[in-house]
Automatic annotation (TrEMBL):
Alphabetized Gene3D superfamilies for the sequence: Homeodomain-like, Ribonuclease H-like superfamily/Ribonuclease H
Organism: Rubellimicrobium rubrum
GO CC list: cytosol
Any GO BP: DNA recombination
Database matches in InterPro entries: Integrase_cat-core, IS30-like_HTH, RNaseH-like_sf, RNaseH_sf, Transposase-Integrase, Transposase_IS30-like
Claim: Repressor is one of the keywords in the record: no
UniProt key word Nucleotidyltransferase: no
Protein name in the entry: IS30 family transposase
Molecular functions (GO terms): nucleic acid binding; transposase activity
PROSITE patterns noted in UniProt: INTEGRASE
Length: 319
């Protein structure tokens, strides 16, 4: 598999300048630097310093070449070329919008022109650029990372569940989100030093309607009891099934089936992404309740307020 392109570094430009002073041919320079000769020719053409007023200062200077290259990359960012667009994006980031929500909204706003449309990845790159880091924009994203990095699924503790309850046996109507009443549930864990309290997230697959509730015990029976109390008042058609991962907090799932007649489905081992709706919602909730939140001091009305805000947020999947 070919390597991805990497820009010349300052050290490589210094070596290039030294070799060029020694009158070494471009082909030989490219060989020593491990680069294609076209890269060296292009570097000399683009970053050669010209000064009409002081001809003696003309030449290839590595520090100047580095500054010219960085300046070109900065100016290529669409948000830097359009200050008003940049200000609008930053304002919405601070209001809690995700990059995908901002990009999607720009496409449908009245009077929106093509030059004012963005890809969500463009916004994310800007957030982690030098300009975005100077404004601390990353702290407004759901995951609040210090730098951009790939996301990997967490590794839940493996547990033996019946083969008949595997997610691969779930009806196609549930997979296609054709019917209301099929839910996904998960448990958000917080720092142990703040006690056993946690937050349960329950998301309806078709409408993405979300319910959050605090659970003061990490044991499975306590969690299932709360889920039964939450969903039992609904009509049977609105509580047909729930999908879980294979965490220890869901080992009492048979009590759930017996208590309210809802079918339980389980993801494959180490595959929580198979219940993507609730995993995505957990990332949204984390912006309001980071891992160091002391849940025992949290008022119930604050939980309801955050839940209402999440349910009222724009969703691309719902148009």
């Amino acid at each position: 598999m070919p390597c991805s392109f990497v820009h010349l570094s300052l050290e490589e430009r210094r070596q290039l300048a030294r070799l060029r002073e020694q009158k070494i041919a471009v082909d030989e320079i490219a060989c020593r630097l491990g680069r294609h000769r076209s890269t060296i020719y292009r570097e000399l053409k683009r970053n050669f310093w010209h000064d009409a007023e002081v001809p003696q200062a003309e030449g290839y200077w590595p520090v100047t070449a580095q500054q010219l290259a960085v300046g070109r990359r900065r100016s290529s960012c669409k948000l830097l070329r359009h200050p008003q667009l940049c200000a609008a994006v930053v304002e919405r980031l601070k209001d809690g919008w995700s990059p995908e929500q901002i990009a999607g909204r720009l496409k449908v706003e009245p009077g929106s022109q093509s030059q004012h449309r963005l890809c969500h990845d463009t916004i994310t790159r800007f957030v982690y650029s030098a300009e975005g880091q100077s404004q601390e924009l990353a702290r407004h994203l759901p995951e609040r990372r210090r730098k951009r990095r790939p996301r990997f699924a967490r590794s839940p503790r493996s547990l033996v569940f019946p083969e008949a309850a595997r997610i691969h046996h779930r009806p196609e109507a549930v997979n296609a989100r054709e019917e209301f009443g099929h839910w996904e549930a998960d448990l958000m864990i917080f720092r142990k030093e703040h006690g056993p309290a946690n937050i349960a997230t329950v998301v309806e697959r078709k409408s993405r309607f979300t319910v959050l509730f605090r659970n003061n015990d990490r044991r499975s029976k306590s969690l299932m009891g709360r889920l039964i109390d939450l969903l039992s008042p609904l009509p049977q058609a609105a509580r047909q099934s729930l999908t879980f991962d294979r965490g220890l907090e869901f080992v009492s799932w048979r009590e759930l089936e017996a208590g309210m007649g809802a079918k339980a489905w389980f993801c494959d081992p180490q595959a929580p992404w198979q219940k993507g709706s609730v995993e995505n919602m957990n990332r949204r909730v984390r912006r309001y309740f980071p891992a160091d939140t002391v849940l025992l001091t949290l008022a119930d009305r604050s939980m309801r307020s955050i839940c209402d805000r999440l349910n009222g947020t724009l969703r691309k999947c719902l148009g």
